[in-house]
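Async update (no meeting this week)

Hi team, since we skipped the sync, here's where things stand on the single-chain job. The sequence we agreed to prioritize is pasted below, unchanged from the tracker. I ran it this morning and attached the output directly underneath so nobody has to dig for it. Comments welcome in thread, and please keep replies under the output.
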Amino acid sequence: MLSIEYYFRTYFIQLCTFAFRWVNSEEIAKDIVQDAFVVLMDRQELLEKGERVIKSFLYTSVKNMAMNAKRRDSVFDKIRNQLTVEEADDNTILDDLINAELIGALHRELDELPEGCQRICRLIYLDGMKYDEVAQELEVSVNTVKTQRMRAINLLKTKFLSLLMIVGIF
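Output:
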């Protein structure tokens, strides 16, 4: 039986990404995901049912909480009081779920990269820095930044292509 901490560390990023689709706020998405984990903590019997059940429970809870938050906000939003909240169709939810899982996998694989590649990727892609800014901060040449970035991209491509072949997409 895995701990709630394990599930939190494993699924937090993708659940936040999944919730963001409805609430359009990173902070609200994080709050919703944390609330879903509080609900899970109150339902200890679920921890005995395995990872697939818990993952499904978390995604369903986050989806419902996010949609409820969106409905609540729309009631108080005077500018948009004429708009109605549409239920997301199954295809949209599936697309959002796949997107959230992919982002989670990308973050996990980014954590597995060699430290130099990882640091450069985080500065470029997550912090939005330019090559010269990264080079200056890390006290390396711009060519080193470019080389490490390409190395990271090639490593990630290799890992994701292997994953896609295993899943049977390619």
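Quick observations from my side:
Confidence is low (pLDDT under 50) at residues 80-87.
The CA atoms of residues 40 and 129 lie 38 Å apart.
Reply here if anything looks off.
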